[in-house]
Amino acid sequence: MTATSSETLDVSGTPAVPFTRLVSVEVRKALDTRAGRWFSGSIVLLSLAVVVIYAFAAPEDSRDFGDVIAVAGGVLGYFLPILLILMVTSEWSQRTGLTTFTLEPHRGRVVGAKLCGGLLLGAGLIVIAMAVAAIGTVIGGGDWSITADVLVKGFLVANLIGILTGFAIGMLLMNSPAAIVAYFIYSLVLPIAVGILGSFQEWFADLAPWIEFNTAQGLMFQDEGAPSGELLAQLLVSGTIWLVVPFLLGLLRLLRAEPK
């Protein structure tokens, strides 16, 4: 009686999945579903509707391109982070994580692909928002003046921070409803609560930019030119509390979580 010999399959020479392919897959996953397409389209349509209303309702001296792009950026800033949240939490809320991490077992590459894909989608929506702002400027009959502060800090930097914030919250909670609620509490409820407390206590108003990231960002947007040393320190401290720490904790949790 002869024993059957079994050969071990050597996959050490198999090339890894290209990172660009992972990024393209994550972008497709965000847009291929009906919910993803409708949500992305709704962001654009809502931005267009708000900009058109603003173009007709705003005073004539407030219809410049800089004013309109600030309005479009404000709408985009509230909803773009939700798109990033859904990109992260979809693996867990829709139970596709087992398939994803089986096809690509290196979770760090998947997370990086999701972040890069989210940045690409965000860049695309930012460009569309700029086009919408241009349409609003034409409708309102405003001129094309815009300051570097409005374009860079109030539009580009603000939306980049929003993208990273949404990504961090999504990784930390890994649940779509909970992450969306947490994001709106962070972006809407928390600044209002801090503002109310600051109006009653002067010492808390001075402390707020150091412990609340939205307050520090508001000061950055109001400040013309380069931020002062104190403002940079406030952004660094509050940003570490509300962005860097949640991002690192969320990344650690996502890398260790058990797909179900």
TrEMBL record:
Coiled coil: none annotated. The chain crosses the membrane at residues 38-57, 69-88, 115-139, 151-173, 180-200, 231-255. It comes from the Bacteria. Keywords: Membrane, Transmembrane, Transmembrane helix. This is ABC transporter permease.
